[in-house]
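can u pls check wat happens w/ calcium ion
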Amino acid sequence: MAYTPGLDANILAIMVMIVLSSERIPKSKYNKEKKAIKTMVINITLFLAFDTVFRLCDSSDNETLVTVAFIAKSLYFLENGILVFLWNRYVGKLIWDEGYQHKWYKYVFEFSICIISLIIAVNFFIPILFRIGKGGEFIVYKLHMYIITIANYTNVIITYFSLVRNRKRLKPKNFILLICYPIAPLFAEIFQLIFRNMDVMSLYALSAFLISKVDNLNDALRDPMTGIGNRLMLDDKLNRWFSSYRNNCICGIMLDIDSLKAINDTYGHQAGDEAIMHIAEIIEDIAKRYNLYPIRYGGDEFMLIWKAPTKEDAKKLLLELRKDENQLAGRLPENRRISYSTGSVICAPDDDMSAEDFLWLLDKRMYAGKHETENKIEYALRNNGLHIVLQPIYYVPEGRLVSGEALLRLTDEEGNAIPPKEFIPVAENTGSIYQLEHFVMKEICKIASIPDFTERGLHRIGLNISATHAARESFPDYLIKTADSFGIPHNHICVELTETAVSSNQEIYAKNIKKLHDAGFRLCMDDFGTGYSNLRRLSSLSLDMVKIDRQLVASDSPQSRELTRLAVNLIHDLGYEVVAEGVETAEQAEFVKSLKVEYIQGYYYAKPMLPEDFLNNFPGKQ
Ligand code: C2E
Ligand code: CA
Ligand code: CA
């Protein structure tokens, strides 16, 4: 075994690279890219390992060693091609996200690696590339060697071209690292040509080092906060989709978080950011499932874009997404009251619509949708389109219904019912929530002011107040004034509040609650157990009861049951009464009863109903 110059450098480089590539990749959105880098580093390590094996076995006349050297050298050539191939693909993905700029790039790259593999494969049987002579000497067949080299370097040139042309899409640091990646090996090969007996193959390790330093976080095409595509990616994709020949439909849908402004105002910006990231995650999930591109379009606006073979396919997918929309809302903490408004799908099949037209239309349709709800609220406020329904609440110690929660209903011009999930967030955003809730206050007062309210066995009526409203300075006085004008005892009204996180209005919120409590109103924290639950704050507020959310109560899993049990005990320990909400079955009712909750509300006992029907449940002495 002869000593070859450079061998020790090779071994050293391999050792360093094994350390480099043994680094565990943390689970993250970006691990796909990190994995690609790791794959490249591992391949460079293998490449150097094959070279080392070849050098160790080379120049020997032992037949086994000659065979080993032959195999090692073949794998070395193959690995060389693979290295270029991986780099091309990686650069393509980094710049274009979904692959290469032009389809023919892909074909050239794939064709090259096929040719290289073929030559190497044939060489096992008929020496056309190289062979190792009896005495261990290395004999090269120049023509095929040139083909391999040209194939590799054509690919390098194409990718260089693409890199330079699109350098703005990459962070400068990444651009330089990627440009430098093939330089070290090239230098090594030229050096080898001039100084025949020098070996600088270990320079490949430099490439491994460079590539491992590429980070594509904050890549120009991604939104830094959520990691999903940004507007640049959107423009880019649409421009490409619209400019290339098309026999399919380009589709898009716009989503936005209606209540982001309210979240920011009441819960603080950090909560707003959290909400955005949470939404982005959900949207990304959906995008993955259906093979769509998720984009963060603006502050609280997201988009999904995709290509569908036909208009029918686009419509089908939209229906699927609509189904998902409910699921989507279900995954959000209810008290955060995040809701989406989705624009309709725009399908641009054959007409000569441009990318700009497409975006403009999507935008317009979404605003029209939002505006529609806004208009419906305005219309309902002016034209008696509002009414309340009451859902009876069961009192466990007395085994009967004793109170009710008022729920607002909105009907539009055509008589369609708009669900609160749709209009409450819009109202919170535009400020009409105050008017809506003033309406509910008055309706509740009308019921609570019937002369025999208490005689009928009624304790109180629940009034939902949004967090934005509850933190409004004038809120307690308004409620007191309204109740007094109807002459009703304050304890006949129970104000249902939602939890708040960090907020500049937290002080006013707490002060308002105390003021109402001192004035004799009953106070209930709504939707406990989902989203944000700050126990210290819960104990510091002047409350009477806490309502456990139906997401927790209605789930029959052992974990949810255990959580419900813990929540009930905890609320009791704080000295508050418990309302279990959303009880739908006898079994759920038995379960919450076994936990000694005071009140139960849910379809199992009664659905929300019109005030007359509600009062019929409380006939009193007749
Ligand atoms: P919420 O305050 O948690 O009200 C309870 C919701 O749960 C009601 O839906 C009620 O119909 C529903 N529900 C009651 N029992 C069951 C059950 O057993 N199973 C199921 N699946 N659902 C049940 P609704 O009327 O659609 O109201 C939804 C939300 O709209 C309310 O949730 C509340 O957050 C909001 N909302 C309604 N009216 C007002 C209002 O006047 N002001 C404010 N700020 N929000 C309101
Ligand atoms: Ca409520
Ligand atoms: Ca609730």
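Residues 526-527, 547, 549, 581 surround calcium ion (ligand 3) (CB under 6 Å).
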